[in-house]
Design goal:
Elements lengths: L7 H4 L5 E3 L34 E3 L10 E12 L2 E10 L4 E6 L13 E3 L5 E8 L4 E7 L5 E6 L12 E4 L11 E7 L3 E7 L4 E8 L12 E5 L7 E8 L5 E9 L2 E9 L7 E2 L23 E5 L9 E2 L5 E6 L14 E7 L3 E3 L10 E4 L4 E9 L5 E2 L5 E8 L7 E3 L9 E5 L2 E7 L7 E8 L4 E8 L1
Length: 458
C-alpha cells in the first residue's frame, strides 16, 4: 500500500514540517474479518468528530389513530429496553404527550403500544436522578414555564407525581417565552438549559442537593445569534471519556431544520461552535443520509445510561430525531412528524486512551513505546480488522510550544508494530531516542480519512 504523507494542514499543526520523510509500517494482507458491534472496552474513549456523516432509518413508527404527529423525543434505556417519551398532536388543535411501551430493538418501535398521558407533558425530558433514586420528567406549558414530576416507575405514563415548578422566570424578545428545556448535572450542580425561539440559549443552575426543585426566575444567556441560527430544541450531553460537553441546537436553514453543535469544557463554561453551519452541520439534510425527510429536528442522542449526567458515547453516536414528508406543509401542529434514527458513519475512530488528540501534545520519554489504539470501519459501519486497510505514518515536525501538553500515563514495550487485538487496532510506536523532538503519528485509510496524534519527546 502506498504511503500517504499527511500535510501540516491535514494534521492540524501550526508547526512547519522539518523532516518530510515518513516512516511507514509494513502490513501483510489477510482475509478481513467483520464484527457488527463496536468494541466495548473501558479503555476506549473516542474524541468527537469534527465532521459528521450519518446513516438514517426510515420512519420508525406512525401515530396511532387520532394523532397526526409524534415528536420531541426523549429516550433512555430501562432494564435493557428502549423507553421513549414524546409529544403528540391530534387532528385539531390539541397538543399532548405519550410514551411507547418498552421495546427491544428499533425495528420494534413500529409495533410498540403508544400510551397517552392524561396530563400533557409537552417536549419531555426524561432521566433518572441518581442522588435521590427518583425518575424525573420535565416539560413545558402549564402553570409555570417549565414543570417537573417524579416517579419510581417511568414506564407508567400516568404514574407521575403532581406537577411542581422547575423554572418560573420570563425572557424578553420572545414570542414563545422559555421553550424546550433540558437538564444535566455534574458532581456539584444541576443545570437547566432552554431556548426562546429568539436566537438565545439560556442557562440556570442550582446545587445538586437541592434538586428536584425550582431553578427560580433568573437565567444567563450563554449563546446568542440570529433567531433561525439558534432556534429551539437545545440538548446538552457529557462526552464520555473526555473533559468536554456537547450542546446541539436546532436551526432553520434553506433546506429544512438541522442541528448545530457546540462544545465546552464545563457546564458553566464558554460554548464554542463545532459543526455549526448548514453545509457542515451536526445533523441535517447535508449529512443525514435520510431520503424520507429534509428536516432533522427535535430529538435525543442515545445515552450510555439514564442518569442526570446525560452521558453519550462518541464511539457510537446515534440520534433519535423527528422528520416529516418534505411535501407536507401548513399548520405546524398538523405537520406529520415521525421518529427516525441516525447512526454516525465511522471510517476511523480513535485514537483512544492513553493517547490524546484534539490539539493536545502527548509527552513521552524518548525511546519509550506508546500504544495508539483505534478502529477502522467500512462505509456501512462494518468493522474492518485486516491491518492492510490502514497505513501508519510518523513525521518529525517542529514543536508547537503554545499547544497544551499531557503526559501519556500508560506505555508499553517492544518494537514498532501494528496489529488487531482486543477489539481494536494497536500501533505500538517505539519513539526515537531524540529528546526535545516532536512527531505526528497518523493512521490513514485508502479513502484519505486520517487521524493524527502529536508527541513531544523528553
Amino acid at each position: 500500500m502506498k504511503v500517504k504523507v499527511p500535510s501540516i494542514r491535514s494534521l492540524g499543526l501550526a508547526a512547519v514540517m522539518t523532516l518530510a520523510s515518513p516512516v511507514a509500517v509494513s502490513t501483510q494482507a489477510a482475509a478481513a474479518e467483520v464484527d457488527d458491534a463496536p468494541p466495548a472496552s473501558s479503555s476506549t474513549s473516542c474524541p468527537l468528530p469534527t465532521t459528521y456523516s450519518w446513516t438514517s432509518t426510515g420512519p420508525l413508527a406512525t401515530p396511532k389513530e387520532g394523532w397526526v404527529s409524534l415528536k420531541d423525543f426523549s429516550h433512555v434505556v430501562y432494564n435493557g429496553k428502549h423507553l421513549v417519551y414524546a409529544t403528540t398532536h391530534d387532528t385539531g388543535t390539541r397538543w399532548g404527550s405519550m410514551n411507547f411501551s418498552l421495546f427491544d430493538d428499533w425495528s420494534d418501535m413500529a409495533t410498540a403500544t403508544q400510551n397517552a398521558m392524561t396530563s400533557a407533558a409537552v417536549a419531555p425530558t426524561l432521566f433518572y436522578f441518581a442522588p435521590k433514586d427518583i425518575w424525573v420528567l420535565a416539560y413545558q406549558w402549564g402553570p409555570w414555564p417549565f414543570i417537573y414530576r417524579t416517579s419510581h416507575d417511568p414506564t407508567d405514563p400516568n404514574g407521575w407525581s403532581a406537577p411542581s415548578p422547575l423554572f418560573t422566570g420570563r425572557i424578553s424578545n420572545s414570542s414563545t417565552g422559555p421553550i424546550d428545556q433540558t437538564l444535566i448535572g455534574d458532581d456539584e450542580n444541576m443545570y437547566l438549559f432552554f431556548a426562546g425561539d429568539n436566537g438565545n440559549i439560556y442557562r440556570a443552575s442550582m446545587p445538586i442537593e437541592n434538586f428536584p426543585g425550582n431553578f427560580g426566575t433568573e437565567a444567563t444567556i450563554v449563546l446568542s445569534d440570529s433567531r433561525f441560527n439558534l432556534f429551539e430544541a437545545v440538548q446538552v450531553y457529557k462526552v464520555q471519556g473526555q473533559d468536554q460537553y456537547l450542546m446541539i441546537v436546532e436551526a432553520i436553514g434553506a433546506n429544512g431544520r438541522y442541528f448545530r453543535s457546540f462544545t465546552a469544557p464545563s457546564l458553566d463554561g464558554t460554548w464554542t461552535p463545532q459543526a455549526a453551519t448548514e453545509s457542515n452541520p451536526f445533523a441535517g439534510k447535508a449529512n443525514s443520509g435520510a431520503t424520507w425527510t429534509n428536516d432533522i429536528s427535535h430529538g435525543d442522542l442515545i445515552r450510555t445510561n439514564p442518569d442526570q449526567t446525560m452521558t453519550i458515547d462518541p464511539c457510537n453516536l446515534q440520534l433519535l430525531y423527528q422528520g416529516r414528508d418534505p411535501s407536507s406543509g401548513g399548520d405546524y401542529g398538523l405537520l406529520p412528524y415521525r421518529p427516525g434514527l441516525l447512526t454516525l458513519k465511522k471510517t476511523l475512530s480513535g485514537f483512544y486512551q492513553p493517547v490524546k488528540t484534539d490539539g493536545v501534545v502527548n509527552t513521552i520519554k524518548a525511546g519509550s513505546t506508546v500504544p495508539l489504539k483505534f478502529n477502522v470501519y467500512s462505509s456501512d459501519n462494518t468493522e474492518l480488522t485486516n491491518p492492510a486497510v490502514v497505513t501508519m505514518t510518523v513525521v518529525n515536525v517542529s514543536c508547537d510550544d503554545g499547544a497544551p501538553t499531557e503526559e501519556v500515563e500508560s506505555l508499553t514495550t517492544g518494537e514498532t508494530s501494528l496489529k488487531y487485538t482486543d477489539g481494536h487496532f494497536q500501533y505500538n510506536w517505539k519513539s526515537p531516542k531524540n529528546p526535545g523532538a516532536c512527531y505526528a503519528v497518523s493512521a490513514t485509510t485508502a479513502d484519505g480519512s486520517s487521524i493524527t496524534a502529536q508527541f513531544k519527546l523528553r
